[in-house]
Specification:
heterodimer; A: alpha/beta; 5 strands; B: Rossmann fold; Rossmann fold; five-stranded parallel sheet; elongated
């Protein structure tokens, strides 16, 4: 789990599944990081390493999107794997923010 | 056909047999009525008098043996002709023991049949009840003569005994005497039918007059009992009347009053006995409902059989499935006493059981709550011996608690040997004391090839063990059907040992075989455990169906597991979630059981649909519903179905 800033974008990297057992830790960490890094125009969730997203994970993503939107910043997701995309499609995330699929491994 | 035509009831489940017998009988001047089974026969017999009953002995449900026994218990002497294809000597004996008068083997021999019809139609003793037979014995009501009546006189004192014998004989009684209650009961045990009346001194050594009265009214209700003593205190008088004494005689006036008192009792008896027979019949019908399986589909793992001896009270056995994840409850109970009040207590017990069982599945907790409710009735003379089981068929595991009943008997088969283990029974019966700590409790694992027997106190562990050894092949031979095992064991038990109480026998078979076909996993309510459970489920599915895309299926299952942890068990880390995976070629079924009471699936689905696209839905149902082919909720168990291919 880590974050970094680059060219006005704040990147969030959970590097783990967004599931109930991880949720408290991830949420606390990301929310603290977002509060400490307000000088950005965009927040990007890097989904690399996310295999499973359960209902609490979905809530986290929606929560992040709402938090970022209230600060008039842009939110998007990158490096979304197939499994992540299945959940994203089911919940129609793309109607709320951009999702970029992960490059296919050769 | 005239008014004197014999009326015949043909009882046979086979319509061709009924028709054939009917044709022969009608063409020989008989009036014929038919019954398809034992129950229908009893209904007809209680409404109408027949000259002869022709009884098929092997019928489904209430068979000919049991039906004939019931007819005799009703006090009816209508000749019963056993009509059966069983022609062995022992079959004939069994028919006679059940109360049949004649044996007519199948296929039918018309001449033999007509001979029997002729014999019983022209008999001097037309169909009768015991009561009217007794009535006839009273020749002159104003000047009683009691010829043909057999009296058992219980008196220790030689002089008094001789004096009373003279008095009784002069009135026409045939008198047999014994010195005390113990010998009287021995006589009755050997041949109770021999006696019509007992006249007993209240005070004898050993079993006294009250003891004789109590046992006789319970075991041999056809016998009238009269008690005499020099003096009676009011409490004893009341007790004797409660126990059903037919007459109480002051010793000082024995010679003058005995005739009148016996005569009055006989007259009352003759009027009331037909009503009593009908009541007893109804009570027996009610008793049949006391032994019931709780599931509409027969369970292959439980078997029950019972044999009643008394008209009232009786043993009860009930089972109930609590959830789809195969948790079952079994209760075996026996109310003290054998009278109408015992039957009433049985009904109350079942009412309480029915209302509290789902919420008190744990055996000790169930005993405690029933005891509490029974004590509210304040029927201090009645108590209920009870055994309660919680049976986890998935794990073939039993929790057993007893309150006054015998302990269970565990039978294990190892190759061609049978081994036994008997468990502690006893404890205090329900309805006696306001104490919750006097029951026995055991955890029992019912391993493969083992069977647990439960029984009421009408049977003994050692005798049952001996009967099982005697019927060893029932268990050892693969070819022998295990169907009606308890019935066959109970019959064998009764062949070897006399029946002196109601008996009920239950057998629970190991479910381990089924366990092997299913995959079980359980975990405590923690999110990390949900991850492990998902991994386990995913691995099991992969092992069985490697090419299956399980991504969304697993998402759905994960939501159901989260639902169990969050809502069912309310995050209680000590509460278990049980997973039962059933993998078939056509799909998989998963049961997720929590300790909660469940939820209204339809309502939650409607709520869930009304939410916006990226919301999760009530209890994660939006995801579960989207990817499972079917969802069912039964109490705390959520069952998901996924079809494959």
């Amino acid at each position: 789990m880590k974050t970094y800033k680059s060219n006005g974008t704040f990147f969030l990297l959970p590097e783990t599944d967004l599931v109930a057992s991880q949720m408290e830790e991830i949420r606390d960490y990301f929310m603290k990081e977002l509060r400490d890094n307000t000088d950005v125009e965009q927040v990007t969730l890097d989904a690399a390493g996310i295999e499973i997203v359960d209902s609490l994970g979905v809530n986290l993503i929606i929560g992040l999107y709402r938090h970022v939107s209230t600060e008039s910043k842009k939110f998007n997701v990158i490096n979304a794997g197939d499994k992540f995309m299945k959940v994203a499609n089911f919940f129609r995330f793309s109607t709320l923010f951009d999702i970029e699929k992960a490059p296919i491994d050769e | 056909m005239t008014n004197n035509s014999p009326s015949i009831l043909v009882v046979d489940d086979n319509p061709f047999n009924r028709e054939m017998l009917g044709d022969i009988l009608k063409s020989n001047g008989c009036v014929v009525d038919n019954a398809n089974n034992g129950k229908e026969a009893l209904d007809k017999i209680s409404a109408k008098t027949y000259t002869i009953i022709i009884m098929d002995m092997l019928m489904p449900g209430l068979d000919g043996f049991e039906t004939t026994k019931q007819i005799r218990k009703m006090g009816l002497k209508t000749p019963v002709i056993a009509h059966t294809s069983m022609s062995m000597k022992k079959d004939r004996r069994r028919c006679m023991e059940a109360g049949c008068d004649e044996f007519l083997p199948k296929p039918i021999n018309t001449n033999s049949l007509l001979e029997l019809i002729n014999k019983y139609s022209t008999s001097d003793s037309p169909p009768d009840t015991e009561s009217t037979a007794l009535k006839k014995k009273i020749q002159h009501p104003d000047d009683p003569s009691f010829s043909d009546l057999n009296v058992l006189l219980i008196e220790e004192d030689h002089a008094i005994r001789n004096e009373y014998i003279d008095v009784l004989q002069s009135m026409g009684f045939t008198v047999t005497f014994v010195p005390n209650g113990n010998e009287a009961l021995n006589r009755l045990e050997n041949n109770a039918k021999q006696f019509d009346l007992i006249i007993s001194n209240m005070f004898t050594s050993g079993i006294d007059g009250l003891g004789v009265l109590n046992t006789t009214k319970r075991e041999y209700p056809h016998i009238l009992v009269f008690i005499y003593a020099a003096k009676f205190d009011p409490e004893t008088l009341q007790l004797m009347l409660q126990l059903g004494a037919d007459g109480i005689i002051p010793k000082s006036d024995f010679n003058n009053s005995i005739g009148k008192i016996v005569h009055t009792a006989l007259s009352q008896s003759s009027h009331s006995r037909s009503n009593q027979a009908q009541t007893a019949f109804q009570v027996r019908q009610s008793q049949a409902r006391l032994t019931q399986y709780g599931c509409s589909k027969p369970c292959q793992f439980i078997d029950m059989a019972f044999s009643t001896l008394h008209d009232a009270g009786g043993d009860m056995a009930q089972c109930r499935k609590f959830s789809q994840s195969d948790q079952c409850g079994v209760v075996l109970a026996d109310v003290s006493g054998h009278d109408i009040l015992s039957s009433y207590i049985s009904a109350v017990f079942l009412g309480i059981l029915s209302s509290v069982w789902n919420t008190h599945q744990d055996p000790l907790s169930l005993l405690q709550i029933i005891n509490k409710e029974l004590l509210k009735m304040e029927e201090v003379n009645y108590h209920v011996c009870t055994t309660v089981l919680l049976w986890d068929q998935n794990k073939s595991h039993l929790k057993i608690a007893t309150a006054g009943n015998p302990g269970a008997l565990l039978l294990t088969q190892k190759e061609d040997h049978l081994t036994f283990q008997d468990f502690e029974g006893g404890g205090i019966c329900l309805g006696l004391l306001d104490r919750d700590d006097l029951y026995t409790f055991q955890d029992v694992h019912l391993a493969k090839n083992s069977r647990l027997f439960l029984f009421s106190d009408g049977m003994s562990t050692s005798k049952l063990q001996s009967t099982i050894k005697q019927k060893k092949m029932l268990f050892l031979s693969e070819a022998t059907s295990k169907r009606e095992l308890c019935r066959r064991l109970l019959d064998a038990y009764m062949d070897s040992w006399s029946q002196d109480d109601d008996m009920i026998l239950l057998s629970l078979e190991s479910t381990q075989k089924a366990e092997e076909q299913q995959l079980l996993y359980s975990f405590y309510s923690d999110y990390k455990e949900v991850d492990k459970a998902c991994k386990w489920i995913s691995n099991q599915i992969f092992k069985h169906i490697p090419d299956l895309d399980t991504d969304m299926m697993m998402l759905s299952i994960r939501e159901a597991l989260l639902n169990a942890v969050e809502h069912g068990n309310n995050y209680d880390k000590n509460a278990l979630v049980e997973v039962n995976l059933d993998l078939q070629e056509t799909g998989l079924r998963i049961d997720i059981a929590d300790q909660g009471t469940g939820f209204d699936l339809d309502k939650k689905l409607v709520d869930s649909k009304n939410e916006s696209g990226f919301q999760i839905g009530k209890r994660g149902l939006k995801i579960i519903h989207a990817f499972a082919d079917k969802i069912e909720v039964h109490g705390g168990t959520t069952r998901l179905y996924f079809s494959v291919g």
